[in-house]
Amino acid sequence: MSNNIALKKGLDIPVKGIAAQKVTKTVVPDVVALKPTDFKGLLPRLLVKEGDSVLGGSPVFCDKQNPDVLFTSPVSGTVKEVVRGEKRKLLAVLIQADAEQKKVDFGARDAASLSREEVKDLLLRSGLWAYLIQRPYGIMADPALSPKAIFVSAFSTAPLAPETEFTLGDRTADIQNGLIALGKLTDGGVHLSIDKGSEIKSPFAKMENVILHTFSGPHPAGNVGVQISHISPIRKGETVWTCPLLGVAAIGRLVATGKLDLTRKVAITGPAVDEPAYVVTVAGAPVRSLTAVYEGVRIIGGDILTGKILGSNGYLGFFDEQLTLLSEGPEREVLGWAKPFRFNLFSSSKCYFSWLTPKRKYNMDTNLHGGPRAFVETKCFEDVTPMGLFPIYLIKACLAGDIEKMEKFGIYEVLPEDFALCEYVDPSKNDIQDIIAKGIDLMIKEMA
Amino acid sequence: MAEEKKAGLFEKGGKLYWLHSTIDAFDTFLRVPGTVTAKGAHVRDSIDLKRVMIMVVIALVPAALFGMYNVGYQTALATGASWGFWKMFFYGLFKVLPLYVVAYLVGLAIEFASSQIRGEEVNEGYLVTGFLIPLIVPVDVPLWMLALAVAFSVIFCKEVFGGTGMNIWNPALVARAFLFFSYPSSMSGSSVWVHIPKGMSTVDAFTGATPLAIAGEGGKGALDAAGYSFMDLFWGLIPGSVGETSVIAILLGAIIIAWTGVASWKIMVSSIAGGLLVGWLGQLAGSGIPAWYHLVMGGFLFGTVFMATDPVTSAQTETGKWIFGFLVGALAVVVRLWNPGYAEGMMLAILLMNTFAPTIDHCVVSSSISRRQRKMKTA
Lengths: 448, 379
Hints:
The complex is a heterodimer of chains A (448) and B (379). Chain A has helices at 116-126, 164-168, 172-183, 224-231, 245-257, 287-290, 379-383, 391-400, 403-408, 420-425, 432-447, and strands spanning 5-6, 23-26, 31-34, 44-46, 53-54, 59-63, 66-72, 77-84, 90-97, 133-135, 139-140, 150-153, 190-195, 211-216, 240-242, 263-269, 277-282, 297-301, 308-309, 322-327. The radius of gyration of chain A is 22 Å and the shape is globular. Chain A has eleven helices and 20 strands. Chain A has four domains: 3-14 and 110-257, Rossmann fold; 27-97, CATH 2.40.50.100; 265-339; 368-447, no CATH class. By secondary structure, chain B is an all-alpha fold. Chain B is globular and about 70 Å long. The interface between A and B is large, with 72 and 52 residues.
């Protein structure tokens, strides 16, 4: 076990609405959605049509560039609707669930006895390959490659993020199986990072067949990208894969039982939720079945920094383990910027007085708190980016579309989510994650 | 109802759409924008540039108030008038207020016009620049000169580069440099620092020279002879540019902007270190001025605290800030000690280092990246 890696830079945003550690209900949805938009870099080719019946684990669409990569139905039922957007872009496939669930049997195995090809084949056919994310660029893993290593973060530090010990602490056997299976896919081993604070009692500290690391510090210490940059930074030409802990558990269960199981505990969080707690459901469940919806409240799949807007008629994403409900904030305060106190507002800077109440949690909304400007204050970016990078230089290189500089300043090591806190603290209100995402898209295009 | 009508008129397609930058500026000045996040992080920090800028303005208030009082005080001292505290303050206030009116009117007019041309919302950067300019000029500077300097600075040092955040040099200092080189007789010498009302004569002992000039001529001995002790210079009841004289008022401001993180304390500390080091070397070489005197004379501290720390024109990397600040302080004292032409070196030192700030950052970033890459190769 390596030494603890203590991070000082970062920020825990003190937003209200953390989920209490209890499951309030189990939702068996009547309709689920499988959304190609959940997967970066996917060009979907539809494999079913409306009216077809599918089993849990039957392919629904595949990747045009790589038809081996299948995306499968989380439930058994009938294809109810194929939702398309502009230019017939495939947005979602809705599946009406059967009362009695049947699943494709992929065959139960012993994880340790599987070969690399067998693991790969199993993951591709079952649809769980989609859990493997490849860096640089955060795209779907290329099955033709063998990555330098695979990284798994066993905790999240994002605002109001679900507590992995609560959501997955009872699935250690699945996770152990999953880690063994993932280990077959790389020669570099599987790196598992756990929270230093819970090191002793963490159910994930006893995992075998992994290289264990502990991290401590504020968000983004739990982000796998930050962990990679401290464990083994990505150099040009290298690829690594990451897998969320939930994905590891799903892979482990698939290996052990031969069945695809995408159930999960979902944290319903945020200042707009009356009683934040967990619900048990499956990927693709309708938002309305999970939480009460309110007028003027934004429903986000994921956390407040990196989540996607789902809308009250949306569906839980493939990766989502959290919903955040946040009031829209179009109120306009008179001379707000000049008011000396504004005690109800949080700021990471000391220009407001929230530093006097470090323990307080705030009722936040989606107000931008300002207008877009040119970059002026830039030290705040370095203060929240524990990656040994110069954030403002990479941001400007992305804005300029300068490939050489983007390489130099570390584009291979980052994803937009690594810049979410920069975006949060920026007094100039730039959409920094979008800038980085566009830079990454340019790299993908130019380097292809 | 009226509001809806206004919105329609100034929205895209409305008759007065071409005025929308101006309307937006007043609108967001009065009320926080109601914009909600559309992309990326769904919540954003409460801070914005308006708040950052107002912090600097608040930090400048002690120096400005003291400067006003000092203007009256110096006049009373020079003419031998026996005025009370409030008389001195209001006398100064009415001398300084026109400077503010001119600086803001000219600067904001250009700022609004160029935002209008660019089609952007008006930036709040000029709030600070406009507050700084009257504090770094002699009180007797003719208003038309000030207007010209402000116009030159805002157009050629800021707007042509793209507005707030894009400029290379500190606009307030460029305005001062413009005055300094175009109208030297109104910006230097010993007749410009203290306002002598027409028809009033000065007392016999009055010279009007700033302590900096006196020290430049004859070192500490001359300062002592003129009756300026270190504490006099520290409290700041001395002739000089309006806001630069009082160390205590500037330090109050320094605490505010350094604590809130609006300005870099690293630049302040390293600038003082640079000034002290060169001052000490000068002392060894026989300048006759103790090193610490440089900190309390002239515009050294004001420049260090409010000008060198401008986040746009100073170095942006943390290591770069140490280097930048140190060189600003060192160069300022070098100019003071080894340049026969100019008594004050702070303005030139900061403008020169503004020019080199990107170079400093480039070196810092490049060396950090190559260090990291070497580490990655061995890892």
